[in-house]
Amino acid sequence: MNALQELFQNKKQNLLSLFFTAGYPQIDSTAGIIEASRKAGIDFLEVGMPYSDPLADGPVIQQSSTVAIANGMTIEMLFNQLETLKEKTSIPLLLMGYLNPVIQFGTEKFMEKAAACSASGIILPDLPIHEYREEYQTLFEKNNLSPVFLITPHTSDERIKLIDELSNAFIYVVSSAATTGKQQDFGQTQEAYFQRLKAMNLKNPLIGGFGIHNRQTLQQAWQNLNGAICGSAFLKKLATAADAGKAIEMLKEDLGLN
Amino acid sequence: MTVKTDTNPTEEKRKQNIPDERGYYGSFGGAYIPEMLYPNVDELRSNYLQVIESAEFRKEFELLLRDYVGRPTPLYYAGNLSETYGAKIYLKREDLCHTGAHKLNSVVGQALIARHLGKKNIIAETGAGQHGVATATVCALMKIPCTVFMGSKDIARQQPNVLRMKMLGAEVIAVESGSKTLKDATNEAIRHWINHPDDTYYLIGSTIGPHPYPDLVARLQSVISQEIQSQLINQEGKDAPDYVLACAGGGSNAAGAFFHFIGNGKTRLIGTEAAGEGVDSGLTAATIYRGTPGIIHGCKTLLMQTSDGQVMEAHSVSAGLDYPGIGPLHAHLHTTGLAQFLPVTDTEALEAAQMLSRAEGIIPALETAHAVAALSKLQFKPDDVAVICLSGRGDKDLQTYQQYFQKT
Asked: Structure pTM?
């Protein structure tokens, strides 16, 4: 069992996770963000690996990736940063990014390094399920890493069941048909979608993301799902706050948590 | 007589020019897309073959190709070029298609598919603007609202096509992200599709993108090689040329010109890539030379990237070839030796454009000029038959030509 799976065994409701792009706003921001998240009681973290062409991302995450790459962030450097932190931090980590940089790094080496840095899981939104089963599944299992797949309001029940079968940590529930950071409140579409998911009695916890940015969106995710992930809204705070601790404070205020 | 198309070649050819059911040509292709795109791409994948092979589609497609696009396009024996280069050189005149390039072939077919799937909006990316103009044209014809994504750098260097798109009623969205060229126009089109999944068809212009796009576009463009085949029988008494030359950015006109000749053991297929200021200059779009296997815009192919897997910015004087990837079919043809790819620099292409204009009275597009430039890189025998896919006309490039020849 990895740290993330352990977390889900002990906590089933009102989970809060943050996404940030490694190397943003500064090349060495990673340690401060992880430490501040732990102190603030954030349940788990997604560490974004910056990519030049992030297809599923809106302007905020695109911008953070551009800055991070310009700062010199690479997967190699991220692993070096995480390696020095692993004794100090107890917060479960996932790595999230696009497949191409992982392939260029070397998939097998990537999985081994991720495990060595105590990561619990990997999210690669553009890795197709078929290719996952053929080429990646054994590597995930060998390194005790959880694969996390995305579902959207347009994903069929049949496909959701397949994803549930392949998952062993959580399912990433994309709130609406949109790239990241579309700042709209949730409405009846989300409510119906969340209800549909609830009724499916899936074995994995459901964590909602994309669009979580205020009290309403967080509460709707929490009431219907097991938890929520906040990405673009957090990056915006990081861009302006004096430090990561302040950014989380400001975010929590927006989310109605202070 | 309508134009007879053959989008479903025999089992034997299937091995070479058609991907497997998951969209792989050898190790290249596939559909590496986030879940947000899956339902739309899967809908197209599970319908496209059935649609394009249906009698209803073929009837409408072939009629439009004949009466609207203006097919078959001539296979013109270029006597002056033949004399200069010492071979029988033919030009497949795709530049005479309505809107001035081969792009319309695929757009007509895809728009019919979009209508069949009940889509209410069409979006497209464009580099040189030819695909954007073709899409805006067919959307006007079919009364479908059209949005075209174009890099702001390309908008500046291909103004005539921007004006044409607007005249046709399309909305042109200037893309300011990244390199502000075709790569980023494609990113923004994909993002728009993610945000508008319900009734939008993404009409990709080249043999790139997730499966089934490379195969779909190649099949719709294969009318080019099919016509070459039957025209050569009449004009030369043979069904396969010794050479086919075509430029390749994403590779749609090359895929169409090669399609029926791939793996025939008779025809040397020559693709030309934009080398920009030279393959080793750091300012190049020669993906086959500079590229390594990876993923771009949803398919596994060769692309220019850093050792960390970040996609590099391409450079070419020609907006239509200014792309850091190449279609998976071409990556496969290169890897297996079924086609050969030659780099052509900006200067070589510009000189070739003037050469063709003066030799045959035909002003080619800058993209097309890269194929023409390959003539001086090949050693022909006198009875060799070489066909150049003259993919587009050069009206849109006159400003670039004028600026270059003023300087030299």
From this structure: 0.95
Query: What is the per-residue pLDDT across A125-134, written as a single tens digit (0 to 9) for each?
Result: 999 999 999 9
The domain ranges of chain B are 33-68+103-216, 72-100+222-407
Q: Which residues of A touch B191 (CB under 8 A)?
A: 55-58, 179
Q: Cα separation of A109 and B31, whole Å?
A: 24
Categorize the per-residue pLDDT at B171 as very low, low, confident or very high, splitting at 50, 70 and 90: very high
Q: How far is B408 from chain A (nearest CA, A)?
A: 37
Identical fold for domains B33-68+103-216 and B72-100+222-407, yes or no, is yes
- Tell me which fold the domain B33-68+103-216 belongs to: Rossmann fold (3.40.50)
Q: Topology of B72-100+222-407 in CATH?
A: Rossmann fold (3.40.50)
Instruction: Name the token pair of B352.
Output: 């070739």
Q: Which residue has the tokens 């906040």?
A: A230
Domain A13-253, CATH among 3.40.309.10, 3.10.450.50, 3.20.20.70, 3.30.70.100: 3.20.20.70
Neighbours of A168 (CB within 10 A): 21
State yes or no: pLDDT of B81 exceeds 70. Answer: yes
SS3 B89: strand
Closest residue in A to B194 (Cα) is A178
Minimal Cβ distance to B187: which of A55, A125, A127: A55
Q: Is A57 a catalytic residue?
A: yes
Judged by CB atoms closer than 8 Å, whether chains meet at B194 and A56 is answered as yes
Side chain identity, residue A128: P
Q: How many CA atoms lie within 13 A of B365 on its CB side?
A: 32
